[in-house]
Amino acid sequence: MSYELRDHTADVGVEATGATLGEVFAATADGLAGAMCEDVPETGERFDVTVRAESKEALLFDYLDELIYQRDVRAVLPVENEVEVREEAEDDENDQSAWALEGSARGVPLAEITAREIKAVTYSEMALEKADSGWRAYVVFDV
Asked: What pLDDT, in 10s, does the model give residues 12-42?
């Protein structure tokens, strides 16, 4: 599980890899934190995150959007992200499956760090694909 920050015209890109969907989601979230702050103190308490969506890509988008929301509401930088992703049973009415995520993050108080503002996650150039060693994600964040 790892991530790299990528230069992007006026925004910032995060390319992440992981052996499982959960690992690549967590690595992408760690990349979001890395794009906001380089030096992260060991303070902060863990909080839970739960998200559901109609596809894996929508789940990744909604998860990152939820972390940005939690950052704003709790005034914390979500770091050390842990995620489990699962596909849920098909909805008989719509004949579609859904995806769910349960995770947690350590919330470092923003008052303790100097953090660059990330305004939002975008669908621009978003990629979530199976790779030789697991999964690869690429996400662009609006700064």
From this structure: 999 999 999 999 999 999 999 999 998 988 9
Give Cβ neighbours of residue 117 (< 8 Å, ≥ 6 apart): 36, 143
pTM to 2 decimal places: 0.93
Residue 28 in contact with residue 83, Cβ under 8 Å? no
d(CA 143, CA 139): 13
Q: How confident is the model at residue 9 (pLDDT cuts 50, 70, 90)?
A: confident
- Is the CA virtual torsion 84, 87, 88, 93 positive or negative? positive
DSSP 8-state symbol, 119: -
Taken as a whole, the chain contains a residue count of 143
Residue 50 CB-density burial (10 A; 0-12 exposed, 13-18 middle, 19+ buried): exposed
Instruction: In whole angstroms, give the CA distance from residue 124 to residue 69.
Output: 19
